[in-house]
Structures are given as C-alpha cells and as structure tokens.
Amino acid sequence: MHIRIERGSSSPISRQIMEQIRAHCLSGTLQPGDSLPSVRKLATRLGVNVNTVVRVYERLAAEGLVEMRHGEGTFVLPQSGVSGNREQLAEQREQLEREFSAVVHRGILLGLTATELRKLLTNSIADTRANLKSEAVEQPESRPVKTESGR
Amino acid sequence: MHIRIERGSSSPISRQIMEQIRAHCLSGTLQPGDSLPSVRKLATRLGVNVNTVVRVYERLAAEGLVEMRHGEGTFVLPQSGVSGNREQLAEQREQLEREFSAVVHRGILLGLTATELRKLLTNSIADTRANLKSEAVEQPESRPVKTESGR
Amino acid sequence: MHIRIERGSSSPISRQIMEQIRAHCLSGTLQPGDSLPSVRKLATRLGVNVNTVVRVYERLAAEGLVEMRHGEGTFVLPQSGVSGNREQLAEQREQLEREFSAVVHRGILLGLTATELRKLLTNSIADTRANLKSEAVEQPESRPVKTESGR
Amino acid sequence: MHIRIERGSSSPISRQIMEQIRAHCLSGTLQPGDSLPSVRKLATRLGVNVNTVVRVYERLAAEGLVEMRHGEGTFVLPQSGVSGNREQLAEQREQLEREFSAVVHRGILLGLTATELRKLLTNSIADTRANLKSEAVEQPESRPVKTESGR
DNA sequence: GTGGTCTAGACCACG
DNA sequence: GTGGTCTAGACCACA
C-alpha cells in the first residue's frame, strides 16, 4: 500500500494519509479483510509520530471503513450501507475533481500554459504509476526510515 | 481579481486566498500600484470572516508584496529584491507542481484513468479562462491614486 | 454541566467523560444548540490534559452528537436518525444496567449484604442530587483547578 | 467459582476477572488451599485468550493471594500480613463503593429514577444469588491437596 | 507483537 | 478567545 506525503503542503499530514487510505479502500486496492500496516510501522515508514497515525486509524474506524482489533491489528471492513461504497467513491471523486480544478486555476494564475499543464499531468501520471508498480515488487518492510530527503 | 475558495478543502481558507492573491501579483494580473479590494468587501464577497482577510493582507504585507495604507486601502508594491519576483514565481510554481502531482496521485488511487484526468484538465482550463474573461469586463474595482488626503 | 471523574477507576478517564456528556445529551440536560465548555476549560476544570478532552469531543462529534465549530466552540446537535435519540437512550440505559448489575455482583462477592447495598444506593442517589443541585446555583467558572484532593 | 464478565464494559476483561477472584478470596468463597481452575479451563469457559488469564493469575500471585505451582495448578494462599485480608477487604469495598456510586451517578444522568434504581438493585441481588446458588451444586472443581509430587 | 490511553508542550488557524 | 495538528515519550492491555 503506497502512501505519499507532502510535508510542506497546507493540508495536514494526517488528512493526507487518511484520504489516501480511504482511496485505497474505496477503489479496491485494499480489500475487505486486508490488514493495514500496524500503527507503529506506518508511523516509522512515513516518518511521522505514532499518534498521528493512531488518529488517522481512529477516524477511519469511526467512518466504518476499517476496524481496529486490540492486539491483532487494523482491518478493512466490508462496506455497510445500501449502495455500499459506490456512493462514497463518487463523493470522493467529486471532491478530488474540485481540488484538481482549484490547483489548475492557481497554476494558470501563476502563468502556466495549457501545454505546460498537460506535460505536468503526463509526468505526474507516469510517476504515480512507477511508484505503484515498484511497490508491487517491493521487498517486504525494508524501507529506510526518516531519510532527510525531500522535506 | 477573481478568487475562488474551496470550502471542503483540506487547505485552510486563508491560505487559499493568500496563494491566489500572490499568484495574481507574481503573474502580473495585479500590477504594482493596483489596489486590492477592501478587507470587508473581500470578506463579504467570499463569505469568510473579516479577520481572516485581515490576516491574509497582513502576511502579504509582511512578505513585501503589498502595502496597507491606513485609511486608504491595500496596494500592490513594485518588486523589491534584485531578481525580484522571478525567484518567488519559480518557488510558487514548484510548490504548485508538487500539489498538482499529489492530487493526480490521489486521483489515480481513486481509480481515475489517464483519459479521465486529461479530460478533467481540459475542462478545468476552460472553466478558469471563462472566469478570468468574464471578470475582465467587470467594473475595474475603483483604484484610488495615492491621494495625500487624511494622514 | 456536572461531570465527575473517578481517577482510580479501571475505565479510562476519557471514556468516563464521554459517557457522562453523552448521558447529558441524550437525557436532555444538554439541549440541541447548547454549547459545551471549551476544550481547555473542561480540561482544567477536571484536571486532565487538553488532548484527552479533545479526543472525547472528537469522538462525540464522530457519533453525530455534537459539532465542533472552529474558533467558535462545541455545540450539541439536534438528533438525526429516524427514531432520534430514543433508541440511543435505551441502549445506554441497558448498558448501564449491565454495569450496575456487575458492580452489585462484585459487591455481594465482597460480602456486602442487601441492606448495605440499599443504604449505599440511597446515599449515592442523595450525593448525586446534591451535586446536581449545587451546580444549578453555581457561580459561573470560579472552580478551583487541580486540587490534590480525592485522587 | 462463578465469574461473570461484561464484554462491552469499559473496564478491561482481565481486571474484571482479577477483581472477582480477589473478591472470592477475600470474602471466603475461596478458602486457603482451594485450587483455582486451570488457566486453560477458565480461559475457555470465559471465552477469553489464555494469556489474559495467565496474566491475571500472575498478578494475583504477585499480590500474595494465590500461588502458582508449576505442573500442579494455582492455589489460594493463607493470608500473610498481620491484619491479613481485613485491610484488603476494606480497601476493595471502598473501591467498590466508589464504582457503585459512579454508576448510580451515570444512571441518574440517563434519567433513571430512584424507584427504578431500587428495582434494579433488587433484581441484581436476586440474580447474583441465583447464580451463586446454582453454582454451589456444581462439581467442586477438583481440589488437589498439596501433593509433594513433581517439584 | 498489536492497539489504547494519557501527559506535556508547541505552533497554527479561525472569529 | 475558540478548535486543530503535531511531537515525544510513558505506561497499560490484549493475543
């Protein structure tokens, strides 16, 4: 499960993590019954405080997306509601589209051209895919913690 | 001066406003000497608290981008430093690119395809341009010349 | 709003606080629209850490019982669901009855007689009523903080 | 030896078990020399994890209430100190009274009347007695006398 | 090993 | 003034 956090971003770290895990659950990358990384592992992997991850998991649990089992771990729940997660997925996508649009808007204000934006999009898609692929092959849990790069 | 705020967004309202004004200044939509809307007008227009706008203007003033003249209003300053705003513009663009990339990443996690994203980009660009044009015809926001009245 | 916390108890402080606030909301002591004490005030009044209260409020907000408004305070929400809070009240009472019964069970194991238990009940009821009354007359916010008594 | 655990309760399972065994010891339901059920039996009977019961027995042993004899089982010890268990009994009762009072307090917050509470108390006492009696007829849980076998 | 609670203190954002 | 996020570290409970 690949998670990417943007340290300088205006949106709080916890929210970035939460939204990405939620995306994984809703889009099926994480299936019901799958276990999430333990609170501590995810915290060290992402280089954030344990409590930050705890709050993320608690909120996802309150939403009914995951379940925390004392002493066992945290697991993805099957979707409850009638229409299940389809509604939620749609909601999340709409929200995402609004944010996307806002970023583009700001990009144009900064003088970026349509061509530049398209190039940026292509690159971003390629990068993301590379990340996701490399992860699929990933050796289990040998990631460096708290490298000082990229902050 | 068109400003668009995304209510449900994770990035705080004040930051959204600040970044868009900064973008306008750096990219030349707002020229040195131009006046910003009054704190109250902008607050009303955007539906946010007056203090929020006050703090935005204060920070922009602290950055040296604008100047608040007591009793007159807030005005865009000519760029100070040697390379002036070019450095700042570049910084802002880099930041923007990181945010763009993060949004695309999340979009892909939510299952959006490259095609969908490209379509979204095209629409967003068109929307933004439409907004900017419609605004160009607006009343030119009453730019007072620096009168020596009052204090 | 009277809240009583038992420091040596096995049930965590945050849970004690949460259950009492929930009881106040469900039974009508706290009406929709009423404001809860601010996070910091309640924390100092009870002599607990601010974060503890924050977590309590967050969980009540996740339950849909209250709403936290940034910069304004925390407020009781009108009950949502169809049957409203009646179901929840009933649930809470059942839970309470089970706990009551468990305590009585343990009391009897410790050799308490029916008479002693009845006396204890009478006293407890009287104490609680006294607390609730004295609070009704209470001078607003002049309570001592962190007295070292009663731990 | 009747033990009743309340699954949804806020106080941890292990503590519930420990307190009830302690109550049985202090009040004389369990006499010095009596054997406790084996760790596995009790765990199965209560439907909890074996380790949970192990830790309970270890703590009771650390308190000096019971003794774990390797390969034989766990046995109630005669009371050590001068005043022995009288002090401990008194302590436990005080703690119990505080918990009782807290539950009553919460019951009143939930809108229960004095009459309802008294009814509840009567029922709880009756239930407990029924449980204890039915158990008295049980098979007497195989009390081995301290054989000098093994070590 | 897992999650859960609590503390203390810092800094940010909104009204 | 209000709530919100983050850190660091301690200790407890469950499997």
Automatic annotation (TrEMBL), chains A, B, C, D:
Keywords assigned: Coiled coil, DNA-binding, Transcription, Transcription regulation
Entry GO MF terms: DNA binding; DNA-binding transcription factor activity
Coiled-coil ranges per UniProt: 79-106
CDD domains: WHTH_GntR
Region (Disordered): 132-151
Any matching Pfam family: GntR
Domain HTH gntR-type: from-to ranges: 11-79
Full protein name: HTH-type transcriptional repressor YtrA
Organism: Gimesia panareensis
